[in-house]
UniProtKB/TrEMBL annotation:
The gene is Mtnd6_0. Core subunit of the mitochondrial membrane respiratory chain NADH dehydrogenase (Complex I) that is believed to belong to the minimal assembly required for catalysis. Complex I functions in the transfer of electrons from NADH to the respiratory chain. The immediate electron acceptor for the enzyme is believed to be ubiquinone. It is an enzyme of class 7 (translocase). This is NADH-ubiquinone oxidoreductase chain 6. The chain crosses the membrane at residues 44-69. Coiled coil: none annotated.
Amino acid sequence: IAYFKLFLGFCFVLGGLAVASNLFPYYGGVGLVLALFAGCRWLLSLGVSFVALVLFMVYLGGMLVGFVYSVSLAADPF
């Protein structure tokens, strides 16, 4: 169980690094989804389900804003 929690923490950090280091917003979004699932699962394994739900809602809003912004920039040629 402790190795699983350590693995989830590692995936959370790795997802955050993927968001910060990618030049393309689509791959950054994949890193954000990885960080979302790993972070929520990690918090659920610690027993704080409300904090996991709040993290899910914040990441969902961030992904929505980031995806709409990147798609609008990609659609506009000028």
